[in-house]
TrEMBL record, chain A:
Chief localization: membrane
Xref: InterPro entries: Yos1
Location of the protein in the cell: Membrane
The family this protein is said to belong to: Belongs to the YOS1 family.
Matches recorded under PANTHER family: IMMEDIATE EARLY RESPONSE 3-INTERACTING PROTEIN 1
Keyword flag Membrane: yes
UniProt keyword Heme present: no
Organism: Moschus moschiferus (Siberian musk deer)
Protein name: Immediate early response 3-interacting protein 1
From TrEMBL, chain B:
Subcellular location as annotated: Endoplasmic reticulum membrane; Golgi apparatus membrane
Top-rank taxon, per record: Eukaryota
InterPro entries (alphabetical): Yif1_fam
Positions of region (Disordered): 1-48
Annotated function: Has a role in transport between endoplasmic reticulum and Golgi.
Main location: endoplasmic reticulum
Record has Transmembrane as a keyword: yes
Gene source species: Sciurus vulgaris (Eurasian red squirrel)
Protein family (similarity comment): Belongs to the YIF1 family.
Taxonomic placement: Eukaryota, Metazoa, Chordata, Craniata, Vertebrata
Bilayer-spanning residue ranges: 142-161, 173-195, 207-227, 233-253, 274-293
Protein name: Protein YIF1
GO-annotated biological processes: endoplasmic reticulum to Golgi vesicle-mediated transport; protein targeting to membrane; protein transport; sperm flagellum assembly
């Protein structure tokens, strides 16, 4: 089967890294996913797109420092143990 | 053994008390009595040859102080763990999901395999908190999913053994794989619930409980496959897949589409339709996963 918890952890780390790499000014604004373009009216339905943009922005803000630590640990472990 | 008092336990309350807030029967009454009476006769009952090194060990003031210090340290550690465990693992909330009895388990297993005649899927509430599973067959529990998961691992080992493909680390691999799929499912459903902005009272533990019910069908399918070959496996798995599909739709409809569709009103409006699609996607993922996790076990 080869789909273990460890590979799930690896995939999660890679996905969070991918979200953290999306640059606000150079990339997200150009496809219209910048966070200042989304927070429109304060109506009752945020909509999927604004929820996604909120999610991306919060993941980037919250996970910035922990990602540095986890990435360093992962790099060291992979260098040592292959 | 001579000199050891026997512990006698008397339940403090009659079983089957009709108080829905009480999760478990209270059996904590007379245990400490037995401990105190046991220790003194046990010490005196030792043969005298080993009494002197024992006595000299305990009479030494330094070691007796060390024993006292060690016991206070252990008590402090236990206090610290008890105080902080609730932050990491919600122990009190978990107890609710294990408050089951035999009647409930029997009825719930029957419901999982044959959900077509059950009429009322609403969980009863008692003063704003949901009733414990032993009093309502619709309430989710974690006992059946946990037991079914462990049984699935064992049955997978059995199936692999009958085909000469067994080795002990394969058991760990099966367990890890099933847990990984469960985690992935929970994360995917939580993400989609967040994106569609559904205001439900569907907690994460509830979701884990609902997603764990499919292991029951998987066990049935693999066992039938072991007994009757591929035909039996496909028949039983097909039946359990359809049952789990109907069960999940009827249960999740009350949780996700709480306002509109619970009374049977047909869904309209983009928001309700999206929620209906989400419910159907979650329910449709169950048969797929049931097949994916078991087809390699039956040859």
């Amino acid at each position: 089967m080869a789909f273990t918890l460890y590979s799930l952890l690896q995939a999660a780390l890679l996905c969070v890294n991918a979200i953290a790499v999306l640059h606000e000014e150079r990339f997200l604004k150009n496809i219209g996913w910048g966070t200042d373009q989304g927070i429109g009216g304060f109506g009752e339905e945020p909509g999927i797109k604004s929820q996604l943009m909120n999610l991306i922005r919060s993941v980037r803000t919250v996970m910035r420092v922990p990602l540095i630590i986890v990435n360093s640990v992962a790099i060291v472990l992979l260098l040592l143990f292959g | 053994m001579p000199g050891l008092a026997s512990k006698r336990r008397t339940p403090a309350s009659p079983p089957g008390m009709a108080d829905p807030h009480q999760l478990f029967d209270d059996t904590s009454s007379a245990q400490h009595r037995g401990y105190g009476a046991q220790r003194a006769p046990g010490g005196l009952g030792y043969p005298s040859s080993s009494a002197s090194p024992q006595a000299s060990f305990m009479a030494d003031p330094v070691s007796s102080m060390a024993v006292a210090y060690g016991s206070t340290l252990a008590a402090q550690g236990k206090e610290l763990v008890d105080k902080n465990i609730d932050r990491f693992i919600p122990v009190t909330k978990l107890k609710y999901y294990f408050a089951v009895d035999t009647v409930y388990v029997g009825k719930k297993l029957g419901l999982l395999v044959f959900p077509y005649l059950h009429q009322d899927w609403e969980v009863q509430y008692q003063q704003d908190t949901p009733v414990a599973p032993r009093f309502d067959v619709n309430a989710p529990d974690l006992y059946i999913p946990a037991m079914a998961f462990i049984t699935y691992i064992l049955v997978a080992g059995l199936a692999l053994g009958t085909q000469d493909r067994f080795s002990p680390d394969l058991l760990g691999l099966q367990a890890s794989s099933a847990l990984a799929w469960l985690t992935l499912e929970v994360l995917a459903i939580l993400l989609s619930l967040y994106l569609v902005t559904v205001n439900t009272d569907l907690t994460t533990i509830d979701l884990v409980a609902f997603l764990g019910y499919k292991y029951v069908g998987m066990i049935g399918g693999v066992l039938m496959g072991l007994l009757f070959g591929k035909t039996g496996y496909y028949l039983v798995l097909g039946w359990c897949c359809v049952s789990i599909f109907v069960f999940m739709i009827r249960t999740l409809r009350l949780k996700i589409l709480a306002e509109a569709a619970a009374e049977g009103v047909p869904v309209r409006g983009a928001r309700n339709q999206l929620r209906m699609y989400l419910t159907m996607a979650v329910a449709a993922a169950q048969p797929l996963l049931m097949y994916w996790l078991t087809f390699h076990l039956v040859r």
